[in-house]
């Protein structure tokens, strides 16, 4: 089971890295739906229930957000956050099990709003929380994935935000 989990995490990683190199929210969400599903399976095989449930919620969140694109009613964000908190309570297994919940709630808010720069910055914060969680649950490929995801988000910030700002300034 351990090796299957790592393989699933590796596949999720590849899809996730590609997602952050997209500059359209709709495309980014499509890729992240598949990535989150694979990560959920990875955590399930590792018996890391909080990580599994939060990734399943991100699949649902991304499907809803993709449907509404840039006009996502705030009620959907609130309902998703309530579901995440509820699932976190049921899957509570010590303080470490709260980290995925905080990470996905922050990122849900980031994806809900329209500014992709903010989305990418919050992704870096979410990655930091998942790094700690992945170490604890021995999600080795998830840990590698989270580091690469963080680097990918930083590269995207440079490509789409810093570089664009410099070009517009000159």
What would you say this structure looks like, in words?
The chain is mainly α and 170 residues long. The protein has one domain. 84% of the residues lie in helices and 0% in strands. It contains 7 helices and no strands. Helix 4 (74-90) runs antiparallel to helix 5. The model has no long low-confidence stretch (mean pLDDT 89).
Low-confidence stretches: none
Largest sheet: none
- Average pLDDT score: 89
Secondary structure class reads mainly alpha
User: Helix and strand string, N-terminal first?
Assistant: HHHHHHH
Question: What Rg, in angstroms, do the CA atoms define?
Answer: 15 Å
Q: Roughly what percent helix?
A: over 70%
Relative strand content: under 5%
Domain module count? 1
The shape, in one word, is: globular
Number of helices: 7
Give me the count of strands: 0
* Distance between the amino and carboxyl termini: 54 Å
Q: Which descriptors would you attach to this protein?
A:
7 helices; 170 residues; mainly alpha; 0% strand
Summarize the structure.
This protein is mainly alpha-helical.
């Amino acid at each position: 089971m351990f090796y299957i989990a790592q393989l699933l995490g590796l596949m999720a990683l590849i899809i996730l890295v590609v997602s952050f190199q997209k500059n359209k929210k709709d495309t980014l969400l499509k890729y992240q739906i598949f990535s989150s599903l694979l990560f959920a399976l990875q955590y399930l095989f590792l018996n890391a229930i909080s990580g599994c449930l939060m990734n399943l919620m991100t699949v649902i969140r991304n499907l809803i957000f993709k449907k509404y694109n840039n006009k996502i009613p705030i009620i959907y964000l609130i309902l998703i956050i309530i579901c995440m908190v509820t699932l976190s309570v049921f899957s509570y297994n010590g303080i470490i099990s709260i980290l995925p919940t905080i990470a996905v709630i922050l990122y849900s808010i980031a994806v809900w709003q329209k500014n992709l720069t903010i989305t990418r910055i919050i992704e870096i914060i979410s990655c930091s929380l998942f790094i700690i969680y992945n170490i604890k649950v021995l999600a080795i490929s998830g840990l590698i994935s989270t580091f690469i995801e963080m680097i990918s988000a930083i590269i995207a910030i440079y490509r789409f935000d810093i570089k664009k700002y410099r070009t517009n300034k000159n």
